[in-house]
Amino acid sequence: MSAMKEADMLKHRSQVFSTMQQHQHNQLWTGLLNDKFDQFWSENKKLMKPSDGSYFKHIPVHFYRSGSSVMTQTLVKPVSEDGNHMTLGELIKLNYPSVDNPKIFTHGICIPHETPVQWMSEHMSYLDNFLHLVVV
Fold first, then answer.
1. Alpha-carbon dihedral of residues 106, 112, 116, 119, nearest 10 degrees?
2. 94 contacts: CB under 8 Å, gap ≥ 6
3. Is the CB of residue 103 less than 8 Å from the CB of residue 129?
4. pLDDT tens by residue, 83-130
5. What is the dihedral sign for C-alpha 105, 100, 86, 66?
6. Which residues are in the Autophagy protein ATG5 alpha-helical bundle region domain (predicted)?
């Protein structure tokens, strides 16, 4: 639950999680514990929508480098400096400039570099609402 709070802080400045009632927090937790995705998702979907209708404030993401046990986390904006959607390729170049043409995996899937990170955060986050990206 603390990771979900952290993700909400990054995405919505904690405006969603903090306004949820205790029974909604319980529904999230018991849905996870009892392996009932529908119960979990009925509350979690509120945390997966941009509060302003278009973008999250920041994207909750953890990076893992293949062959290393170190996890890194940086502040990721969903929009690049030129005002366009930040793509996975742009994100990786910012965080791993010395890695030439890396493959990026999440959920065991190799993700194309042109994928927008906002879309990934909304549709490919793990249950803790973070993107977990492996850089190979």
1. -50
2. none
3. no
4. 899 999 999 999 999 999 999 999 999 999 999 999 999 999 999 999
5. positive
6. 1-49
Q: pTM score, two decimals?
A: 0.86
Where does residue 14 rank: exposed (0-12), middle (13-18), buried (19+ CB within 10 A)?
Answer: middle
Helix axes 37-44, 22-33, angle to 10 degrees: 140
pLDDT attached to residue 91: 95
Domains, the chain, with CATH or none: 2-48 (1.10.246.190), 61-135 (3.10.20.90)
pLDDT > 80? residue 52: no
- The torsion defined by the Cα of 52, 26, 41 and 57, in degrees rounded to 10, comes to 20
